[in-house]
Specification:
The protein is an all-alpha fold. The chain is built from 9 helices and no strands. The protein has one domain. The radius of gyration is 17 Å and the shape is globular.
Length: 199
Amino acid sequence: MLAWLLPATGFALAATFTPGPNNTMLAASGANFGFARTAPHMAGVSLGFCVMFVSVALGAGSVLRAVPVLYTVLRYVGAAYLLYLAWKIATSAPAAGEAGTRRARPFTFLQAAAFQWVNPKAWAGAAGASVTYISPDELYLRTAAIALMFLVVTFGSVTFWTAIGAGVARLLPGPKALRTFNLVMAALLVLSILPMLGD
């Protein structure tokens, strides 16, 4: 098993820890809402991606290969949604008082889990892992092993990026600096879309 599981783990580390929509949004959420309030978002990414990976490995990937236009539609819908999220991050002001706190809310568990289905990077990771490391003769064993491995690795990644955001927020001198940080995160989110649209 180690012959394919170790390379699959390396793939997962590269796919989950590198900058992308999930990590950018988690860093922004950690900075704006803190680590504890971002926990449902973190859990939604971790479990949501695993569910998505299992679905792709057990059949959804075959559907997309049979009807390529579906992947194209998903990719552009995802890009449009990411642009919307970038705009929300860029225009979000630091919460001011109780009214600001009520208006500003981090992603819920279900929102973060559902987001994986329109995240082009998540689709690329799930499809790449299923095509490269899953063989038909060990379909269920490898799918379960890789899903569990992705759960552990993704949890490490979301924890790392959320902690980065929360730590940066402590170093920022005031609301204007946090606003600048939000603008940078929004720009990075937009930049993360460009390579996916070019594929």
